[in-house]
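Action item from last meeting closed. Structure (335 res):
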């Protein structure tokens, strides 16, 4: 019978090598436990990491789409809030003027004219509204407030109609000023004539906010408020009480028409908001699906890893026990 034996040095080297091997395995398993990611992806995926790379790129794109969609949703929501305030003012003032037109006296007419001026200022303030330092209604020139002040508008309009007394003539002159490129566009509008670029919020989805303060429907609202304000003695003091009241009453009709146009603008913006919301839902579903697939590919099984950790710990303890006992063996103890 052949008996093989190992020298002390060989046995020492063997035990030390085995200890290093087990400790490295334990470190790897501990890393898997802490990160949850398999430590040897090439072996797990058969050497093909292309699909994992594609998934990671797609997930990264979805992250960027998520941010873009959130910004677009906030942008459209804020713009909608500004438009709603203008619309509410147009509806309320128009209704008040029309309901009082048959019984209005000079005092009532002047109060409604003053209210028109207040709402004109608010309309311009809302159309100069910003989000995170960016103007919402200035086209591509988001660093600029698109409109001059209401006082600037009224000064220009008084210069246009200051010599007129007939209601129809005043209304026509105001309409001409708003339509004239040398009128409203040159004196009041400071924004860009180019719309904002479309924003991509999904793989095949983008939205475009083609809404500026020089939009005809928004100009209609400002024009209606301005007509009512011109009925004030502060601006056209040469008008008689009857003429001022007639101008304010005409503004009421114009405001109701403006309110309809504003509702159309809000409806268009609401359609964009709905598209953003639908796209966000699709993006979330796609992101969840891709993330689940990626996790299935790269994540280690926690139960299996924990089992292997216990196994390696047991082997290390056994190795340390053998090492201690081996170090205590000597011929004297044997004899």
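Sequence:
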């Amino acid at each position: 019978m052949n008996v093989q034996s190992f020298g002390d040095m060989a046995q020492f080297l063997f035990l030390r090598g085995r200890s290093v091997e087990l400790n490295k395995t334990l470190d790897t398993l501990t890393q898997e436990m802490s990160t949850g990611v398999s430590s040897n992806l090439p072996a797990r995926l058969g050497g093909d990491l292309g699909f994992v790379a594609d998934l990671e790129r797609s997930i990264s794109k979805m992250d960027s789409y998520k941010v873009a969609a959130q910004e677009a949703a906030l942008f459209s929501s804020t713009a909608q809030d500004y438009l709603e305030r203008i619309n509410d003012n147009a509806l309320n003032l128009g209704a008040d003027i029309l309901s009082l037109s048959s019984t209005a006296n000079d005092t009532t007419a002047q109060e409604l004219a003053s209210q028109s001026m207040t709402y004109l200022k608010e309309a311009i303030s809302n159309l100069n509204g910003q989000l995170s330092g960016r103007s919402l209604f200035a086209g591509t020139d988001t660093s600029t407030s698109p409109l001059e002040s209401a006082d600037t508008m009224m000064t220009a309009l008084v210069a246009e109609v200051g010599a007129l007394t007939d209601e129809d003539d005043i209304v026509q002159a105001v309409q001409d000023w708003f339509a004239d490129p040398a009128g409203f566009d040159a004196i009041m509008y400071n924004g860009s004539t180019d719309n904002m670029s479309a924003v991509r919020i999904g793989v095949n989805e983008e939205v475009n906010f083609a809404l500026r303060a020089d939009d005809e429907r928004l100009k209609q609202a400002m024009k209606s408020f301005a007509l009512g304000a011109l009925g004030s003695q502060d601006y056209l003091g040469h008008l008689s009480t009857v003429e001022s009241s007639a101008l304010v009453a005409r503004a009421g009709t114009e405001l109701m028409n403006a309110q309809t146009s504003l509702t159309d603008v809000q409806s268009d913006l609401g359609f964009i908001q709905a598209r953003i919301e639908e796209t966000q839902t699709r993006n979330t579903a796609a992101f969840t699906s891709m993330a689940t697939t990626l996790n299935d590919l790269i994540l280690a099984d926690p139960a299996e890893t924990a089992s292997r950790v216990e196994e390696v710990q047991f082997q290390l303890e056994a190795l340390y026990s053998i090492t201690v006992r081996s170090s205590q063996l000597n011929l004297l103890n044997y004899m």
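Note appended to the action item: The mean pLDDT is 82.
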